Amino acid sequence: MLKTLDPKDWKNQDHYAVFGLGHLRYKATQKQIKAAHKAMVLKHHPDKRKAAGEKIVEGDNDYFTCITKAYEILSDPVKRRAFDSVDPTFDNAVPSKSEGKENFFKVYAPVFERNARWTNKKHVPNLGDMSATFEEVDAFYSFWYNFDSWREFSYLDEEEKEKAECRDERRWIEKQNRGARAQRKKEEMNRIRTLVDTAYSFDPRIKKFKDDEKARKEAEKKAKVDAKRKEQEEKERARQAELEAARLAKEKEEEEAKQVAMQAKKEKEIQKKASKKERQKLRTTCKNWNYFADNESESVKMMEEVEKLCDRLELMRY
């Protein structure tokens, strides 16, 4: 495999594969990289091969250049991160809408897991399953909607500024590379956003939470309507009770007034009868005594006086 590599195209080679670390890739430790490099040098160094009788291509045209470049990249944290950012084996694909409709967790869990390698944050929430709480699901999507990625694209710079002939040319190269990096970063963040948006739209838990929230709001609305109706019914009952109490009070008052009137009328009749009896008694007494007169003339006069007295007695009584 090493002999098929083009030393002049070293930038497009898989540096992990050169060291036989393709199965580990970004998870390979510096100790593993150093050990792999040492083994490669002992086996493929031009001096070793030349001593074994192999014809060596002079200069940078020998495939050993690919080993040197691979170590240069993977032993430097900054250069290695730049290469890891454009790892040729990384799957940038985002599940389609049709894929997301069925087997949501089976489809999306591995996608989020592999993209989690780009985060600057240590703790990455899991996608979870249908048993996840609202808080857990909310934390998951909050993390991904605010995804902080360390992935950058300087490894894909078109020109090396060190090869520029003057300062102005270096500045022009840097400007072009910054623009290209920014565009690729923008496309990368759009890719992540598309992944999160698509997942959110098909997440069955989101639908469940929305349905639950809708049901809760409807229940609250119904409870408010019932409470208001009950309150109105209570007010109406209270109003009817007040009206009934007022009616009963009025009836009682009218009945009492009626009883008072009847009693007054009864007493008046009694008094009237008593007065009539007394007047009659007075008249009879006076008549029996001939009105206390000696002659008819005086008797008539006294009769008139007696009638006046009876009328006066009635006025005094009533």
Any overview of this molecule?
With 318 residues, the chain is mostly helical. It has helices at 15-18, 30-44, 46-51, 64-74, 77-85, 97-101, 104-115, 134-145, 167-202, 204-288, 296-317. The radius of gyration is 58 Å and the shape is rod-shaped. It starts with 14 loop residues before the first helix and ends with a helix. The model has no long low-confidence stretch (mean pLDDT 90).
Secondary structure elements and their pairing?
Layout: H1 15-18, H2 30-44, H3 46-51, H4 64-74, H5 77-85, H6 97-101, H7 104-115, H8 134-145, H9 167-202, H10 204-288, H11 296-317
Helix pairs in contact: 2-4, 7-9, 10-11
Domain J: 14-87
InterPro entries: DnaJ_domain, DnaJ_domain_CS, J_dom_sf, RAC_head, RAC_head_sf, ZUO1-like_ZHD, Zuotin/DnaJC2
Region (Disordered): 220-243
Low-pLDDT segments, ≥5 res: none
Tell me the Rg in angstroms.
Answer: 58 Å
Quaternary state reads single chain
Tell me the number of helical segments per DSSP (H or I, 4 or more residues long).
11
The percent of residues in helical segments reads: 55-70%
Q: What is the H-and-E element order?
A: HHHHHHHHHHH
Would you summarize the structure shown here?
This protein has 318 residues and is mainly alpha-helical. 68% of the residues lie in helices and 0% in strands.
Spell out the key features of this protein:
rod-shaped, 318 residues, mainly alpha, 11 helices
